Amino acid sequence: MRPQNLINQKSGRESIEWSNFWIDDANKETEKRILLFGDSTSRDIRSTMSRMLHCPMDLFASSSALRDEMFWNQLDDFFSSNCYQYDYIFVQVGNHSRRAENGVDLFGEYDYQRFESDFTWLLNYLLQHSSKIIVEPSATILVKKKQNGLVKWSKLILHWCFKIKFHQEIDQVETGVAEKKNAIMQNVAHKMNLPWCDINAFMATTYFMKSDNIHYERRARATICRHLATFAGLI
Fold first, then answer.
1. 40-53 vs 221-232: helix axis angle to the nearest 10?
2. I need a labelling partner for 219 at 20 to 30 A (CA). Which of 4, 14, 81, 200 fits?
3. Within its chain, how far is the Cα of 75 from the centroid?
4. Angle ∠(194,44,11) on CA atoms, nearest 5
5. Could you tell me if 69 and 8 are in contact, meaning their C-beta atoms sit under 8 angstroms apart?
6. 144: pLDDT confidence band, cut at 50, 70 and 90?
7. Which of 33, 54, 57 is nearest to 45 (CA)?
């Protein structure tokens, strides 16, 4: 089960495309098993989430766009064994692929319509493997900046020692695309009666900062996991 008219072409892909599968305790029967579905932001918290909840925490992570045949081939490969059903699946996609099919222009109206259709297909696909799916927004994207070394380390020390949160400039263009995709995902989740966990809004209330333009610092991982687990009623 996959969308129609998937694309299999070089244009529109990133300079590096990657995937990462992880099956925790693959040789054991377990009372509970959870899947983190997304990309590197999901990969960041996988081991922390597993230790916190004391259960296998599997991972499907990919940089590929939902419109790309490569993504759906990876998806079929991941689920091909049919050995594992999931108590929960946490879905966070949309961090990659903010360019149109030509690989140059930003998302346009057609791309957003296509994303809505493909995301609906994805959730229906995942519902075959769990009845409990929690949808999260893609990340807010920061401007990539090079800082003076002394200034950078001075701020880091103040942040680490005194929990001072310094301003980090948001990339309004890239985040604008992400926010439109988030609105689409939230609307699709609502139509399908699936819960929406706005991890971005929650993290904005904390003192944690991002270590690059997308990912939060390592110290934030436990807080992110605790919020997701509390939202799902797992702790």
1. 70
2. 14
3. 15
4. 80
5. yes
6. confident
7. 57
* Rounded CA separation 169/26 (Å): 42
226 sits in the region (left: phi over 0; alpha: psi -120 to 50; else beta) called: alpha
Instruction: Report whether 13 contacts 104 (CB < 8 A).
Output: no
Amino acid at 29: E
State how beta strands 133-135 and 19-22 pair: unpaired
Q: Check whether 109 has a pLDDT greater than 80.
A: yes
Task: Over range 87-95, report the average pLDDT.
Answer: 96
Question: Could you tell me the pLDDT band of residue 231, with boundaries at 50, 70 and 90?
Answer: very high
Q: How confident is the model at residue 152 (pLDDT cuts 50, 70, 90)?
A: confident
H/E stretch holding 117 reads helix 109-126
Handedness of CA 218, 220, 224, 225 (dihedral sign): positive
Q: What is the DSSP letter of 189?
A: H
Classified as helix, coil or strand, 158 is helix
> How far apart (Å, rounded) are the C-alpha atoms in residues 190 and 33?
25
